[in-house]
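Sample intake sheet
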Amino acid sequence: MTRIPTLTLETMSEEQRRIYRGIMSRRGPVQGPLLAAMHRPLLGETWGHFGDAIRAQASIPKDLAAIAVMQTCRFMNCQYMWAVHFPLSEKAGLRADIMESIRLGKTPENFDIDQMKIWGFCTELLEKKALTEATHAAVKDTWGIAGAVDLSAMIGYYVLCALMIGANDLPQPDVTTSVLAPLPA
């Protein structure tokens, strides 16, 4: 059960409704961690713009960005984000075998060089909270400084989403997809 009330148009303040409508006009339904953030209107508005920049304006190709998103969902063991982003990752062109490997906590096989660069960057940053020069350079040399910044921000954004979901015990979305099992310790 959620630890905070779910906002509705009826329970929102005028400021919250204005921000909600602005976000809706750009990206559709406001739900999950973004809706929770709307309890603080400025946070909700900023979060919405941050998410827009991550998703719509990133310099990393969408199929490769999907690897980063799904890998972060798996690392954070976030069922909510996995359920929401699974169909989006399919639509972005992420192969089913890659998503299944990620779901199982395994390194996917048959990666091309660009996929391996994204995987390595995400794995290192999520596990070690820092990057070696070589790992950073592999992404920067391919997608530029903007690519390295975008990928770092993308990982951080989805970690933030997972923490908001976990901290507030937000309800799962109404979608059917493969479920994340806990990873072995």
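Comment: The mean pLDDT is 92. The domain at 62-168 is CATH 1.20.1290.10 (AhpD-like).
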